[in-house]
Amino acid sequence: MSKKTYFFLILILGSLTALGPFSIDMYLPGFPAIAKDLHTTAAKVSLSLSGFFIGISFGQLLYGPLLDRFGRKKPLFIGLCVYILAAIGCALANSIESLIVLRVIQAIGSCAATVASVAMVRDLFPVSENAKVFSLLLLVVGVSPMIAPTVGGYVTAAFGWHTVFWILAAMGIAILVATIFWLPDSYKPDKTLSLKPKPIIQNFLTVIQNPQFYTYSITGAVAFSGLFAYVSGSPLVFMEVFHTDEKVYGWIFAFLSVGFIGSSQLNTLFLRKFTSEQVVNIALIAQVFISITFLAAALNGLLTLPVTIVFLFFFLCCVGYTYPNAAALSLAPFSKNAGSASALMGAFQMGAGTLISVAISLFEVPSVVPMVGSMVISSSLALTILLVGRRFITEKVEVQEGADAGLAH
Q1: N or C: at which end does the chain have fewer Cβ atoms within 10 angstroms?
Q2: Cα–Cα dist 18/184, whole Å
């Protein structure tokens, strides 16, 4: 594979992976404006975010079997078309109820891109490169929290929140065109795979019964849900607790994303000396320590805006190390069922994120504690799952050079 081909593959796969996060981040600064325009509260507007997470959670389970049965591109095209139409619907929404429903539909469309991109990493690259490729994808994904809230803040202030969704629709169209003309077919459709409920469930059960998969996919999902706690809680924390405006919030969000992006890229350097398993262990322990210290500071009234930003920065650094390595370890045992494995991994991740975002939306009193408390719970639970789950792994597929030997592609 030439460097040019490699670059364009990473760019397109990264854009597919970033579509969902961009759809989340870009409208966050518009929460107060949406609440005012639709005659509701910011807490209820956050339910549209929870609805997006719910749509992704269930949608990924839908697309997993479709990607294995029909190949990667056809289900991807359908999903992107659904996304585009739903984004247009969101731009035209005139009630909070319709916005919530349309966000669920938009999420179902976007998760086709998420599942396909993860499965295609397993299709197109050897196992030994998967963790590095996921880190590179996070670099593209990382542009989302750097650009999306900042752009969203300025767009909302200048043109209103409806324009944000018109921009998202245009992005969906651009990505659809790129996948049609420049994304290769990476997987031959498996016509023997039945789409009847029983075989699909059996296929998912085959995947989930693999100890390495369930240990690292659930660990990664629960640890990553701390990021969702931050995303869901940050509009309330920064704009209502610390009284920043939409533009300042966008810049803070962009700055904090540097921690997430930077650590995911430094991960490739760490993998030269450490295994993915070792990096996950260290990152999770650090994540637990930081979140507990963060909560202690919040409960004792020690948090100022700068201190809060510092804690969040280092917390997100830990997530940037945990996710790509946990994802690579989860998918390493699979080749034939990579689509279903990717879908399950994504469903676990979004399911955990949904629970946290819904829980945070129930707290309408401005406070940092719900967000930080959720981070403590997610980090501690993830570490516990890892310590218990890895005891059941008897035949581990390593993510390192030579790991793909003997695996069918």
Answers
A1: N
A2: 19
Among 295, 274, 281, 291, smallest CA distance to 368 is for 295
Residues contacting residue 135 through CB under 8 Å, at least 6 positions apart = 264, 265, 267, 268, 324
Homologous superfamily of 3-183+194-392: MFS general substrate transporter like domains (1.20.1250.20)
- Please tell me the pTM assigned to this model: 0.72
Q: What is the Cα–Cα distance from 108 to 52, expressed in whole angstroms?
A: 8
- φ, ψ of residue 27 to 5 degrees: the values are -100, 0
**What's the pLDDT tens digit per position in 111-158?**
889 888 888 887 888 777 877 887 788 777 667 767 888 899 899 999
By the 8 A CB rule, do 276 and 133 touch? no
CA-CA-CA-CA torsion sign (199, 201, 204, 210): negative
Cα-Cα end-to-end distance for the chain: 16
User: Where are the chain's structural domains?
Assistant: 3-183+194-392
Are 359 and 374 within 8 A, CB to CB? yes
DSSP code of residue 238: I
Residue 187 CA to residue 157 CA, distance in Å, equals 44
Indicate the SS3 state at residue 162.
helix
Identify which of 242, 210, 219 has the alpha carbon closest to the alpha carbon of residue 332.
210
